[in-house]
Structure formats: structure tokens, C-alpha cells
Amino acid sequence: MSARHLSFLESGRANPSRAMVLRLSEALQLPRPAANQALHAAGFAPVYPSLSDDAPELAPVNQVIATLLDQHDPFLGYAIDRHWNIVTSNKGAEMIVALAAPGGSANLIDILLATAGLELIENWDEVAVLTLSRLRTEILELGGDEQLSGLAKRLAAHERVRRVDMGSINLNQAVIPTIFRVGENRLALFSVIAQFGSVQDTKAGETRIELMFPMDEETTSFFQR
Fold this sequence. Notes:
Blueprint: H1 3-11, H2 18-27, H3 32-41, H4 59-72, E1 77-80, E2 86-89, H5 91-100, H6 108-114, H7 124-142, H8 146-157, H9 159-163, E3 178-182, E4 185-195, E5 208-214, H10 217-224
Helix pairs in contact: 2-3, 7-8
């Protein structure tokens, strides 16, 4: 593709073909919903499906999510959408969420903010700053997202986050866990995040499965009990 043709597309002197829109979307690593929007703007039908959660075609995907979460129990496991809303979770995660935000929001950023005044997360400042960094990275990767930007602004504006001394956070650690305090128990867990590599559905393809693993024997024993 010539620089001249690309310039014509940018300035509106030429209209892209359907194949060109897909090629540019791939080069820019646009998320599937954004690629569909680009196709629509160019006058073409979307190529990536957007199915309901209970669509038969997504049954294998939903089964994988359920299996992973069930097999990971009693350790924390949940699936979240692009905007950090909990889609489904296992019993271990439900227990911690019930302590953090009983009857409240199922959005992880809302839950994190709700725990700022509690003693549930021992290293809340560290977790909040790392979460904010992750949010901002996702916004950049998506080329902007109004809802994610709103969540990031709320978290960045929190008094405890604004007071954090970045020099006090040891980013050289091999693993930075989330440390929960449940009664007399100190529970240290770290996350593994998985996404589907070949799911084309716009919503299911962005679903992330987060599994939290124990850092020590005390944490392991607590959840096994």
C-alpha cells in the first residue's frame, strides 16, 4: 500500500474498500467492536458477530469459563468483561466480594474503591496504583473508551491514590500480590489472566478470566478449610 493512497484515505480524497478497512483495523490492532464501527462508518456491514450470552454458538465458551472457575475453587476466580464488570465467579471469589461490597456493585473498580476505608486489603495503595496503571494501558490499547476512562478518573481522583508516594512501591518484586486481611488471617494472592484467542464474538472475545493463586501455605490452608 503506498503512502500516497494512505494519505488519500486519511484526507477523505479516497474511500477505503471493505478489505482495506479490515487491513487497517488489523494493522492498528483495533478491538473487534471498533473494527465493526470502522466498517459501518465506511458503509459496510460488520464482520464480527455480537451474540447474546445464551446463544448456542457460545455454549463451548461458557462451558470453558464455568469449568475453569469451578476447578479453581476454593481459590478466587472470576470472569470480567471489558469494563471490569464481573460476569460470573466461583465461591471463593463470591466470599471475598461479599466482604468487600455486600449487596453492592459487581464492578471490580467499584469494589476496590469500596474497600478503601476498610482493612480488607492490607496493601490497598499498591493494588490501587497497579490497577490504575492497568486501566490506563487498556484505554491506550483500545484507542480510548469512555466508560473505562471514567473508571480510571474515579480511581485516580481517590484521596489515597493521590497521596501515594510512587517511590514507596517496590516495582522490582518478582510478584506483587493482593494481600487480604480476613479476621486474623493474612491472605496473599496473585493473578493469572486468560483470554480467548480464537473467539470472534465481540463480547465473548473480550471476556477475561482471572484466577488468583496463593503465595504461601497460610493462604492455601485458609481457602482449603
